[in-house]
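Memo to structure team: turn this sequence into structure tokens by end of day. - J.P.
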Amino acid sequence: MGTSMIIGDGILTPAISVMSAISGLKGEIAGFEKNAVVIVSIIVLVALFSIQRFGTSKVGFMFAPAIALWFFSLGSIGMYNIIKHDITVLRAFNPAYVYYFFKKNSRSAWSSLGGCVLCITGAEAMFADLGHFSVRSIQIAFTCVVFPCLLLAYMGQAAYLMRYPTSSSRIFYDSVPEDLFWPVFVIATLAAMIASQAMISATFSCVKQAMALGCFPRLKIIHTSRKRMGQIYIPVMNWFLMIMCIAVVSIFQSTTDIANAYGIAEVGVMMVSTTLVTLVMLLIWQTNVFWVICFPLIFGSIELIYMSAVLSKLLEGGWLPLVFATFFLSVMYIWNYGSVLKYQSEIKEKISMDFLLDLGSNLGSVRVPGIGLLYNELVQGIPSIFGQFLLNLPAIQSTIVFVCIKYVPIPVVPQEERFLFRRLCPKDYHMFRCVARYGYKDVQKEDHHAFEQLLIESLEKFLRREAQETALENEDIDSFSVRSRGSDPPSGNEAEELRIPLMHSQTSDEAGTSASQEDAVAIPSSSMSSDEDPSLEYELLALREATESGFTYLLGHGDVRAKKNSIFLKKLVINYLYACLRRNCRAGTANMRAPHTNIIQVGMTYMV
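Reply from structure team:
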């Protein structure tokens, strides 16, 4: 729910930030009224979203000087107004005035808290900055620059209002000295765009993490930096946010109603964050229970008070973020629900090894020369879609490789470490599991010839290493047989030495998946001569013959349907809503560069 509200923030923040900056022209240029503000705001928004594809590293060269000037101008103008108009405004530091304010104004004071929320917005997007800066730099910037400059700016506006109470509707630009209006306007517009950029980046980050957790339909992600994983660009989300921003600005045409919507989204995100941090303190940090209780009591109470105030604006634009959150929450829940059911069905319907052994090495079909690459999401076991290929095809390739693509949180995976292989059946079956690992900058742009060549080279190294380890194991067994003729059992060190080859052959899956029960062997550069093992020589010869006959890409198209005895709601969600998302999301094999003439696709229906 918090993620859904963050995505909603990605719509509201650019809309209100840009529109607030442009609205400063209303009192400065004659005839520049509401319609003009809307048109200019839309133009700025289109420009803002159009430059996102260049990435933060490309457009960020102007961020630091623009933001530095922005906060310098805020602090300077605030000090100027405090000194010139009413220095006694410094008494606002006394918390007793909060009590007096509520005592005198009661309900109207409580209602004004909804406006105060706008003074603390932006804090919820700080985590997105972690994709661009270090934790220490963010702490220093917010403590030593942002906080004091904002305090001076707000106190300076309060001092100006003490002398000119009628300027409340345009207080920011009215409090700026007349000679500085245009420079401040330009800086304010740039700052609004940069603030919007931060929120858009936060939206991209949330969507990417949701996709990684299987909670959001697959979308194309472009990494714009080789150094920082957090700098990404999602084209579909970018244009969706732009269209929604333009719609919000065109419909509301006022920052007041957008601010009401903005407040509910901000406080909602903060309440969810407080709840999750409490869980982290309790379960992960294992903080003292007393502090775990104090944290939500203090921060949660403040947020509940603010939430009660902003909810009073529900009918005045506050409904908008709730609509956005409900929409995205529904999309995420439906996708996760359907994906989990599909994966559970694949696990349940896996082809048993006994079944394959009963079929024999020809798999109950004709084995023709060639290499078949079957793409699937399972990291262990034989996927059920393989059974569909056996049923529907008159022949199957002599060598079958089940390819599972996994992404790891590093920029680039070296090509010599790209693949992890496992053998699935006895040697005469020629069936292997391959986990292809890619870093976040490894956009799969290599053509299929380069991919196939690298895969075969890696498979040959795997076969040589496997034969080498088998020989070592046989030597250990022979050595054990000789020693076991004596009266004493092997010592602890000797027993440990005997277990080393077996332990080494069961490596963990470095692709981020759980350890498999199948023997896994990484791909080293070392190899042994094929003359030492006739079976290895035969297998390498068979692999080369299969390679010469070419590659075939075996793809499965899974259709997910609810069982006939399912309730109506489940049928609606799976058969229509989830099916619609699957049809329109990015295909799992979209990055492959395989020619269409080499692709065979078989459909399969999963009943969940």
